[in-house]
Amino acid sequence: xxxxxxxxxxIRHRTVEANGISIHVAEAGGECGAAAAVLFLHGFxxxxxxxxxxxxxxxxxxxRCLAPDLRGYGDTDAPPxxxxxxxxxxxxxxVALLDALxxxxxxVVGHDWGAIIAWYMCLFRPDRVTALVNxxxxxxxxxxxxxxxxxxxxxxxxxxxYGPTYYICRFQEPGVAEEEFAPAHARHIIRRTLCNRFTxxxxxxxxxxxxxxxxxxPLPAWLTEEDVDYFAAAFExxxxxxxxxxxxxxDRNWEMAAPWADAKVQVxxxxxxxxxxxxxxxxxxxxxxxxGGLKAEVPLLEDVVVIPGAGHFIQQERAEEVSDLIYxxxxxxxxxxx
Length: 338
Description:
Helices cover 38% and strands 15% of the residues.
């Protein structure tokens, strides 16, 4: 076996009971307590498998790598209630998972929704995080936390900025997104989503409104049919509702996070984004990232890395580069022998 197949074969799998649910965790690398642990948090519509390259890279350098399927995904439980997918529930899962595994602190690496959960985790429980590498989604206080007299609800913000057909807006009503993201079409959905790379041009109207339907896209060099098979098989079995429910809690997260209205993210941080990622083209985001806005919110931010030509699924598209950036950052916090 070579490539992704060999990496996946070297990865161990277990189920951990934590926070009232069963959590599937993929692991690689050292199992002993002396090995520094890295917790990888995936996005939508993804799985632990999105981190296969980084797990292989870091496990080979002595780190203990942990990548759970977040609640609602893959082999982790999917509670039926929409309100069970708030950031507070998911951060609770992660803290309980660390407790169950006997880990006091970890490095955290997030992408997409995993990045959002990572920001919340660093706000709520910075005592459990040694350092953070976040990708694609920056900390945006006005989107994540109700703060200030002129605060605008998260979904209202996106509706105003991008209109009712924007994916976050059309995900809100139960049943509507499920028609677009039917389990029977999981293979097509995964292929379409990853091939489009979720660039600034690809998050508007649902495909059903396009005429005629676009032809299947060829796979990019960084994605194999085996990769598509892995994602598709999981979502054919579980459907997409669990992941979609994260979006349906954005306003709830915003309201409930109000006690942290003026809190800073007090964790050493590196932020990585592709210059062809939708999130790098939000209104005003580039000035915010590069002219001190993010640094003001995350005082221990080391730097912002923009990777030319990279889209949204950056840890898969630019696997080696992202792996090196993670490794070079987190090794700064490993005690060196005298």
